[in-house]
Amino acid sequence: MNLKHNNVISTIRAIAMSMIMICHFCEYMNSKWTSFFNLGVQIFFCISGYLYGKKEICDELKFVLHSFKKILLSYYVYLFAILIIYAIFARDYLTFKSIIFALVGSGTLNGLGHLWFIPYILFCYLLTPFLFHIGKRFITRPTNQYVILCTIVLLLMQITIFSYFGYFKVAWIACYIVSYFISLRMQYVNQSMIPVMTRCFLCFSVILYSFHVYFNMNKIVINGMKTFFDLFYQYEHACFGITIFLCLYSFFSKIKGDFINKRFVLLEFTDTYSYDIFITHYLYILSPFTLMKLTNSSFLNITVIIIVTLMSALLLHKIVTIVDEKCCIPIWNKLNL
């Protein structure tokens, strides 16, 4: 993976992380911009799908276990610390049910709603070997057949999850699947696919938004079709996320000069700590321990939250690294994983 590619994806990752934090600040302040900045999570799904689309999967079990460990180790270290903090200072926010659901990844603690992302990304990782093998099988087919394949996979996923699993919203998983298939196609067949897909998704987003405006202006609500409208708005949001990801990728890929050849400390930092920042930031904004009421100045409060979040992310990353080296890696080696 060359430096240009790293800088492009790293820049998009930093933007997505910033959007997520801004979204939660906006949510606290009841800002109308909340829904726009909420696209940061969808962009993260796109980044993950794009990067995993470039990986060869030779051992499915090993791939899934390593991917799960990467996510769950930080999650459980953080969750253990948070449960202790809640038990001491916010016992009323804990229930036996919420603790069990948080431990198994089918729910979140009151005040830590952002962790819904964890089971979603794990589910995406579980799907990845299947996506890899079916994608490789159709990789040399004409583009229209490849698009039909992607559509069929999404449709089957929507029907299956809608019928049997009420927790997941397939539209968010679709961001991962679409970007995965685009990346896989680019790697083996067509390196210039991004500009074409960017224009397609941009047009598709405009069409969906036009329907959105039409529905709202005419106050169209059809009895018995709430599920349809919910799915429509979810896929509209997902399409916007994919479009922004593709637009950003196209834009940054065209930048020349120092952006390609130079290593950027900020990008290296966000590459290393973006997941830790994501996990820790919410506690200081929308949980019972919010620091948004620390002073009468919103600017000062936000500045303090950013600093505390970065310190927490560094600490979490350090603890996870120690646990991994002392406990997980030796066990992994013994099991030949």
Describe this structure in a few short sentences:
By secondary structure, this protein is mainly α. 76% of the residues lie in helices and 0% in strands.
SSE blueprint:
Elements: H1 3-28, H2 34-37, H3 39-52, H4 60-89, H5 96-104, H6 117-137, H7 143-164, H8 170-188, H9 193-217, H10 226-253, H11 258-261, H12 265-281, H13 298-334
Helix pairs in contact: 1-3, 1-10, 1-12, 3-6, 3-8, 3-10, 4-6, 4-13, 6-8, 7-8, 8-10, 9-10, 12-13
Could you walk me through the main structural features you see in this protein, from its secondary elements to its overall organization?
With 337 residues, this protein is mainly α. α4 (60-89) packs across α13 (298-334) and α6 (117-137) packs parallel to α8. 76% of the residues lie in helices and 0% in strands. The chain has 13 helices and no strands.
Number of strand elements: 0
User: What is the alpha-carbon Rg in Å?
Assistant: 21 Å
Q: So how many helices?
A: 13
Termini separation comes to 24 Å
Quaternary assembly: single chain
What descriptors fit this protein?
single chain, 337 residues, mainly alpha
